[in-house]
Structures are given as C-alpha cells and as structure tokens.
Amino acid sequence: MTTLAFPLVPRSNPRRVLADLLPGTVARDVALVVGVAALTALAAQLRVPIPGLPVPVTGQTFAVLLGAAAIGPVRGALAQALYLTVGLVGLPVFTGGASGVEVVFGASGGYIVGFVLASLVVGALARRGLDRGVLGTVLAFAAGTATIYAVGVPWLAVTTGMGAGEALMAGAVVFLAGDAIKAVLAGVMLPGAWRLTGADKD
Fold first, then answer.
1. Which residue in 25, 113, 133, 150 is a FRET match for 122, CA 20 to 30 A apart?
2. Transmembrane region positions (predicted)?
3. What would the pLDDT profile of 95-120 be if each residue is shown by its tens digit?
4. Which of 148, 152, 149, 147 has its CA nearest to residue 109?
5. Residue 11 domain-assigned (yes or no)
6. CA end-to-end span of the chain, whole Å?
C-alpha cells in the first residue's frame, strides 16, 4: 500500500483515513485543517441551552470527532488548535458567537481544550481502522467523548466552584443520551462512506 505524502503523518501508520483518499499533499492538508476548524465553529452555533446548567448542548462534539476520524489525529488536533486560537484572538467562533480569553478560562473552556486531545484519540483509532465498522466507530466516539469530559468536567468544577459530583452531573451525565445518538449516527456515516469509496478493506 502506498503511503500518501503528508509530512505531519508518520509513514508507519497502519491504515489510511478517509481524507487520505483525496489527491494532493500539503495544500490538501491545510484545506482539511481549516475546513474542520470551520465546521467546528459552525456546529458551535447549533446549541440548545439547558435551564440551570452552564454548558449548553451543541453540535460541536459531533463535528470535532467526525472531523478527527475523517482527517486523522495530527490534522484533527491541528484543526482544533486552530479553532481554539482564532477564538482566543477574537473571532466569534465559540458557542453563541462568543470569543476571547474569558471563554477559554470560563465554564466551557475545558471542553474546547479537550477537543484537541480527543481529536488525537479518535484520529489514532481511525488510523487503526475502527471507523470502518459500526461498533468500532461507536467505541472510537466513546473514547473521544470520554477524553473531552476528562478535561471539561474538572475545568467546570474549578471555574464554577461546583463539587465533583455536581460538575459530573451538570457537565457530562446530562449530555450522555445526546452523545450516544451522535456516536450511532457516526457509526452509520463513517463505515458507509468507506463502503462508497470501495477502499474499506485497505
């Protein structure tokens, strides 16, 4: 199997991700990073506030994890680092069109930081072929979601003064049903995309 020339992805990676099927090298990868960052920003505006809770339900996690599975760990992490950076410098890309340091160091900031780490996790699992089957995709999304919460929930507790149990409930448990739906949806989309390409056995 020929490894496509992308300088930030080691040639020892065992499997391709969906983005590797596209022609091109550096220009393609820059476009993918910018595209996933933009998709995350767009998904951040799809939000449903939950009365009494500091963190709303958004489409962000779906965009983050789906993007990471599609473009791989390094590009996925770079996309989220770009998203974080442009929000920090003032572009209105965070939920509700927010931006700035106060968002990152606020109640939801840990989730945004967690996006970078979760992209590494999900992208790495996709490079091992987990995104080519329904169960594997669901497990990859579960691992990515757990990574986001591992950063976001303690961050929420520190910034709001919540106790550990209260932060876990407000910052994770209430979102689990939605997370399960997103994982199942990805479990249909990603393996389906691989089958359409005809490269699912590579």
1. 25
2. 30-50, 62-83, 103-126, 133-157, 169-194
3. 889 999 999 999 999 999 999 999 99
4. 152
5. no
6. 8
Q: What is the pLDDT averaged over residues 38-61?
A: 83
Q: Does the pTM of the predicted model rise above 0.90? A: no
Q: Provide the residue range defining the domain that includes 48.
A: 18-197
The enclosing domain of 138 has a CATH number of 1.10.1760.20
pLDDT over 50 at 7, yes or no: no
Burial 128-154, CB ≥16 within 10 A → b, else e: ebbbbebebbbebbebbbebbbebbbe
Instruction: Classify 43 as helix, strand or coil.
Output: helix
Q: How many domains does the chain contain in total?
A: 1
Please list the alpha-helical segments (H only) found in the chain. 26-44, 60-71, 73-88, 101-104, 109-126, 134-160, 164-171, 176-197
Residues paired with residue 111 on neighbouring β-strands, in sequence order: none
User: Does 13 map to a domain?
Assistant: no
Query: Looking at the DSSP assignment, which residues form a beta bridge with residue 179?
Result: none
Q: Tell me the pLDDT band of 48, cut-offs 50, 70 and 90.
A: confident
* 3 in a structural domain: no
